[in-house]
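#lab-general

N.A. 3:47 PM
ok so I finally got the sequence cleaned up, no stray characters, all 429 residues accounted for. can someone with queue access submit it? mine expired

B.Y. 3:52 PM
send it over

N.A. 3:53 PM
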Amino acid sequence: MLEKLFKLSEYGTNARTEVVAGLTTFLTMAYIIFVNPAILSSTGMDHGAVFVATCLAAAIGCFIMGFVANFPIAQAPGMGLNAFFTYSVVLGMGYTWQVALAAVFMSGCLFILLSLFKIRELIIDSIPMSLRTGISAGIGLFLAFIALKNAGIIAANPATFVTLGDITSMPSLLACVGFFLTIALVYRGVAGAVMIGILAVTALGIVFGGVQWQGVMSMPPSIAPTFLALDFSGLFQVGMISVVFAFLFVDLFDTAGTLVGVASKAGLMKEDGKIPRLNKALLADSTATSIGALLGTSNTTSYVESISGVAAGGRTGLTAVVVGILFLLALFFSPLAGMIPAYATSGALFYVAILMMSGLVGVDWRDLTEAAPVVVTCLLMPLTFSIAEGISFGFISYAAIKVLSGKGREVSLSVYIMAAIFVVKYAVG
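B.Y. 4:20 PM
back already:
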């Protein structure tokens, strides 16, 4: 049956190898079951319901990717997108989390349409690489800022906006320990390094009295508080246009980059550089996003951590299916997830930030017309506390700088259209 479903022999693998690869991938990305509820619950969403929605959305995404696309790529609610959902859309712009879920659902539906009509390639190819790099790196800086804030390492200041917090406090010290430990374990190639860092800090919090013991396993909590709680009434406001597009663009670029990276590592790319069954993989991602919104979580996306499973020998969708099964088993560890304090996830956030900022090495810093929009995008995301604003100013600055520099012909029509839409958004208010 497994041979018929996943064509194991054709890809030079076997069931045992795929199971080991799935376990490896799960360990490297399981931190999301702790981090996602911690972030989204800041909006007022029920922590237990978000935990269940996270596990279910990840499992469904993995099953679709495995059975339909037959790719060894795991899915789960994405880092960066959950921060945008919480800190920009809800806490920053003042929308309810129900409206934000509706925006996530709409972005998933648009993603599905783009995949069905094969427009995805046209959009990605028309967006300059420098802007894509800037968006990814900007989200990394945004996550780093949130990590430092949650750890109490930086604090608000009426004179300077931000300042150094009380770094001798227990949360700050334990957050630093978690970050140092995570980086050291990742460098040493330890599977599950990020999750180990989170659990180690939580354990230290229990020892020093900052965390109350709640147990490890229980029956899953109810998903009712977030299930089908979407509110579409706010989608008709002008400001929500940029929010939906921000969800869509970030998910689109993140998925495309992950698919290329994992497919290349697994030797699944054709000689012409194209990825077989690409549209099926994109449909899996976009469908999981829409389903995840119905369950009660932010965008579900493909995880670059899937490369760890590929390195362990994973070559087919069976790897993704194994990850999905493990996410279902994780449903019974809700007490453990409920104990994780915000400062315990700071190390994980900072680590992900480092990964997302690594792409800056590919920017042509000698060409100011390419480098300047990247810097604008990167800095405005954390400083405005909004991924959407960073993307908006990134598009506007890229188009304006290119035109004024006499390089207007290098800008694609889609970039001009997006820049014009964002200008109108600010003009209308």
